[in-house]
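Hi,

I'm pasting everything inline rather than attaching a file, because the server keeps stripping attachments. The sequence lines come first, and each chain or strand is labelled.
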Amino acid sequence: MTPSLYTVKKKIAESHDTFSLDLAPRDGSPLITFQPGQFNMLYAFGVGEVPISISGPAPGTSGLIHTIREVGNVTRALHQLKKGATLGLRGPFGSSWPIEEARGKDVVIIAGGIGLAPLRPVIYKLLEQRNQFGNIALLYGTREPNDLLFTKEFEIWRGKYGIQVKITVDTADSNWRGNVGVVTTSIARVSFEPAHTIAMICGPEIMMRYAVLEMKRRGVSEDHIYMTMERNMKCAIGFCGHCQFGPAFICKDGPVFRYDKVKHFFGIREI
Amino acid sequence: MTEKKIIDREGLNQLIKVLLDMGFQVAGPTLRDEAIVYENIQSIKDLPEGWTDEQDGGIYRLKKRSDKALFGYVVGPHSWKKFLHPPERRLWKATLNESDFEIIPEESDPRKFAFLGVRSCELHAIAIQDKVFLEGNHKDPSYQLRRENAFFIAVHCGQAGGTCFCVSMNTGPRAESGFDLALTEVIHDNDHYFVVETGSDRGMDVIKKIPNRKAEAREVEHADSKIAEATAQMGRVLDTTNIKELLYQNLEHPQWDDIANRCLSCANCTMVCPTCFCSTVEDVTDITGDHAERWQKWDSCFTMDFSHLHGGEVRTSTKSRYRQWMTHKLASWQDQFGSSGCVGCGRCITWCPVAIDFTEEVPKICGSENSNTAVTKENEAPHENS
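And the predicted assembly:
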């Protein structure tokens, strides 16, 4: 229950309301190892603690990256931390994306908003052994163009590794020359073999609901669809009870779930 | 099974003294604010002698008994979780030094508790909380220390309360395990004595230190008949057949709305429940801003904040919060921890200000057209139009 102390090695502005913190243990001990999809609890002195997905190592960073949207007191306090500042960290916690199951298959990654952050380590894992996977598609949607994260990396993923990257936004002005519409409309624009595809979906619940429906309609079986759930979380170790989603504790059974295992509860209002 | 012993009232007093001398903080039932609650005690004078309780939905009243029984009541608003899983405790402190800070872990609590008067349903509740805090991938070291140090003196119930349903939940009224000593209070003619069973070596060592004699068969029979009386007196019944599946199938049942029209979302049920374990944390600083502390406090799924996420709360309606509580207790608890989260103590019924009754609501939710268990249970002929 007691955090370890970490130092902010680098702070990266990702968008108008989102930033990344590159962290390393203050005492110089080796970095914790984690699986893509897992999260840490980050503590800002005197303010509080929040669960934040690990969004990489990524090119140009050294340590553990956490991509954070400023939405409340704790994330605001984390935003105010400068390079060299200390924060508390507990973790990593939770389940991870099914990279082993995806080996030899096509992979469709569907992300909404900051939902791309926990999927970015997956993309880098897949790129490390690119030839072990079939077609890879990233379908990414945000509300507006200035909400898009990691835009500089898209061209590398596309050009160097042949990933099908489809970006769409809900609304945009005339300066936007890309797609407008919900992310699920992009599914028809990428090629994958539904019977041999693993889907990984992270975003708002409503977006995931439609993404799951569309993937099922395309013929991807329910046990090949993985998604994440989010609930209030205090302890991250199954004691506080806050993150319950039906029978699951999101902190230890999730945040990544295989769709068929939670579908009975997914979609029930206020569950 | 070891042979049963007899101690008298003075023997019970000696037992408390021996435990105090051994360094235990002895907690037991005592009278406060017109309720029987668990507090520290020094002798049998602190016990609610000659009192009993009358319980029903939303009703708790103390009444004088005609005898001088020391355990002549059932469970009150407190449970032993207030000692083992305290309502609030500091997790750690931190001090700031410019942009750096240090965390000082909380020192472990040296207190050893001896609990006197633990009922069978409460022993089951403690075993259930053990699964939460000790049997997962993570252990709560602070709970573990208090739990392992604790000495348990159970009391088999000699009477059942108006909201009791431990028989339905297979959790009582006789304490079967999890105690160091177990007492049955017997008042017969002019005799007042306790039949003592030992449940551990520690219990055996303690009983040797107080005056006792071997129980006669007649005395054990008296004790057993008291427990049998309690079994026959259960104020409530709950059919738990397929309860998990039935609740999961009925998450959108209209009865949840009916309950929500009555439920005040006051959280009393979660506070009195001996198995509810949810907690929140509060981060506090002093006025200088240089000292911070993190406190853990009991929380309830009936509060709005409980499900707060950026963008709003997940469970805004009372319906969804009541559903979360009841389905957790009776259904998802089974998936999470391998047992029901309800021990049938009846506290949530007694202490509900509007007398919402678990045992009345469950059959309404589970016994609808989605299931035929209600019909077969009642042996009713099928209705013509059903």
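Helices of chain A lie at 73-79, 99-102, 120-128, 151-161, 205-217, 259-262.

If the labels don't parse on your end, tell me and I'll reformat.
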